[in-house]
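Q: Given only this backbone (238 positions), what sequence would you predict?
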């Protein structure tokens, strides 16, 4: 059954598509690449819901809320890449807040579904709150490291990076906002993704475990790369 929430998703998707086309046509690979990444992120839950999950006869239904939230976050980020980040100081933090709130809400919903399932772990509120904030902050660290490594690689190739890290203060503020996002979800008790995960709590446990592992390993790898690339700056031996 068609849900009205798919309409704003379609509008944002169309806007990103037009923006991507114009950017690539103008030779702006950075803006076009970021719009393309946002489009891919929107398509993932839609393809899972419409094509992949029905093919494997899964009873899980994702619905429009997740792709809509992703679309809003991707749209804000892509708009920011059109010099808005440079002209409006708080736009980057707004984007981080929307993204961190999304991650926090998804994780929170998954943990509540796991906690409510008698055959799975009995987590308790302190664990749920701590893991929600921890995974969201880890995702924020992972993103900041991607920006740094992307700049390193682009610099070595003589290209402009797709993601632009600014300074340490900006990075610190981004991480603070990444903390505020899940804390807001916890304080407001936003449970919009509980119904999604309750369809299969074991899937929630598997997904959250793997996502945490990937974020942790990825952060270590990217962090090690960045330190090695700037070893002359960070490790000065007399």
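A: Predicted residues:
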């Amino acid at each position: 059954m068609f849900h009205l929430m798919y309409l704003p998703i379609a509008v944002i998707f169309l806007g990103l598509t037009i923006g991507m086309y114009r950017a690539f046509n103008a030779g702006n690979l950075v803006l076009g690449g970021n719009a393309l990444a946002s489009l891919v992120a929107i398509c993932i839950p839609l393809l899972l819901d419409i094509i992949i999950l029905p093919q494997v006869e899964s009873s899980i239904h994702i619905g429009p809320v997740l792709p809509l939230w992703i679309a809003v976050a991707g749209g804000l980020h892509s708009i920011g890449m059109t010099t808005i980040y440079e002209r409006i100081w708080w736009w980057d933090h707004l984007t981080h807040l929307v993204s961190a709130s999304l991650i926090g809400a998804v994780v929170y919903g998954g943990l509540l579904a796991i906690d409510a399932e008698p055959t799975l772990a009995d987590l308790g509120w302190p664990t749920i709150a701590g893991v929600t904030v921890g995974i969201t902050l880890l995702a924020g660290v992972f993103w900041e490291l991607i920006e740094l490594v992307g700049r390193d690689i682009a610099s070595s190739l003589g290209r402009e990076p797709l993601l632009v890290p600014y300074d340490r203060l900006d990075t610190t503020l981004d991480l603070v906002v990444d903390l505020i996002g899940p804390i807001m979800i916890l304080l407001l008790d936003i449970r919009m993704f509980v119904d999604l995960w309750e369809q299969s709590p074991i899937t929630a446990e598997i997904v959250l475990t793997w996502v945490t592992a990937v974020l942790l390993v990825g952060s270590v790898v990217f962090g090690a790369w960045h330190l090695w690339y700037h070893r002359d700056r960070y490790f000065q031996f007399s």
